[in-house]
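Revision sheet: structure tokens.
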Amino acid sequence: MDLQLSVFLFRKSLMKAKAHGFQFDLLDLFPVNCCEFSSYLLAKFLIETIGASSLKIVTGENRFKKSQRHIWIKLDEVDIDITANQFSSTKKTVFVEMHSEWHQRFTIIHVEKPNPKLTQFNKEARSALLHDYKKILNYLT
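Predicted:
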């Protein structure tokens, strides 16, 4: 499966799972206010399904509105984002683009390698996220 198709399928599955509610409540707001958690779940999926081991989770601060931060994935020079449409500046639901022009509005303030075991989260959050990840996978078509 190629990168773009994988990202689209994951988002589509997440939307289907959302209709039935998540254990990790914040995901019920998807795409609003859950770019961090959905990016980690998408990264886990991409690592496990297509072996995208050089993924990075990127945190950026809006150059024009300093109070606004956003989190997405980079694979080399490709910006991958399934929550950008939470902002009024784009209606695009999925980005899988080399040097995305839309993402240029953010100054990168933090980059980290995602851990597919989600050990950066506390036990309760990790358990709920892993439960919801399995639920999302059940909706893959």
